[in-house]
Amino acid sequence: MWVLVGLASKAAILSFLLVAGASEDTCAEEGHCDSSENDGVCLAILAKPHHQHEIRLRVRHILKHQHFNFAHVFLVVDSRSEIPDLLAVNAQKLVNSGKLHEWVTVNYSAEYIDEVNTTANLHPEEHPPDSRWKERHRSVAYKEFNEDYEEEVQIAHYFAIDRCKQRYLALMDIEVLWMVQENFSWIREGLELLWSNEGMVLVMPAFPGVEVRKSRSRPWTKTIEKIHTTLKSSVKAAETTCDHPYSLAGWVNLLDIERYRKVGPRQRVREHRCGGQLVKGKRCKSLAFIRGCGGMRHWEYALECVICNRPDLRQAQLLDWNMAWVQKAPILAFRSELAEMRQGIKAIENKSMSPVLGMDFAVKPKNK
């Protein structure tokens, strides 16, 4: 259920935001990135080799709508193989023009994967929750639920988080479309929520129609009693903890890295939410739990599982999509044509077209 948040003390928050907003709003309309240790927020844009043709258009569009002076802005290319020449050329042009501080490729070395594995617990049987694990009833293996299962290790999100040396990180997939009112910053709104609320790990921006979206509740093997039950802030927002799939944060979010680090190994948190299905011939909700939050899951599924099942953690989403909204927008939404993508972005920005409601991008002529 959506809850509008109330007022809270803002002294510490305002002091932080005034510092963040004092310098020129680079990485926004001007599209240039000047380092500032006081901002405390990184921006990481995740891309893959097949984005080589659209990368410059998309990065410029993303930066135009952030209206925030980030301490560090970087592009993360998720690839295990050689980077296409065109991608390297276009990424470097963004750096040379001052729109990015750097572009990097994900480190898929065995050493780094082992390091990530201490948190991700990609192989659940290697990470028992306690010393009595083998003597007790074991949870369902991660392969028995396939909606969030990865065929191979994917660590781009982990790598981007490790790359940021600030407390906060705006983490977003490159395949997004933004529309933000002039001088409005969803980052500042998100920071206020993070500063005002204990246990808040991340905040997501609004999408068109976010306030009327409907989620379907799932049965539980036991009730998770949350420690924090109300939001404190003047920001128009709602808590989305356990609000699957709207609580999945993989495509865009503002992350409190300090709190994120305290989430700990994924497999040590038991998952108590299920879909009512049979598990090895038994009703899901009759079990003590289904599985751990570790395994070969997408980063966002594993993190969402922990936030949902730990009593002390939570997340939220902004609601005022009249001020700022974002949608998933792969090039397929533009019939795989770069020219159509350019025209679509222009039409949204000059308000000659308006979005349909939902998380996925599609447009219709305005006032029709």
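the 2nd protein, sequnce then structure:
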Amino acid sequence: MRAGSRRIASGVAVLAGFAILSGCATSPPTAFGEEWVSEEAATEDYFQTAAHLELPPDQDWPDPGYTGTGPDGQPALYGADLGKVDASFVWYCAWGRELVSPESSEDTRAQAMAHVLEVTETPYYTVGLQAGDREYWREQVVDPLLQGDIEGVAKDVDTNCS
């Protein structure tokens, strides 16, 4: 497994942990939807979304790490869109890393830039980020990237894609 894949896997584990803690059926609606789904349904959504997203060469989709039991021993439920959000987040992080990696070829960087610019059409952006976060993300990441400045992507990947 490449170092980037390990980082992606650890990022998914963090997301899964967040989902368990915030995914109790007695909790108010989350950013991931007002409906709740099982571990199996969230995992299925994750891999169905992943099937439509291409990772960089030599990278594999990590298991999302959802569990059927919460920290209190009760059945864990997940926001209905969490699998889609997580898969598109893993995809964004993988391409964001390729974009900012000094080891990436120019062709890989060009491909990564195109993918990173597509993130605004993914569940990570449209569902996973709150409206204010989407605006900030567009101003700090997308707009500079359109001008060829990858610093916003580098900061975002460093902060959020550990």
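Confidence is low (pLDDT under 50) at residues 1-29. The first helix runs from residue 3 to 22.
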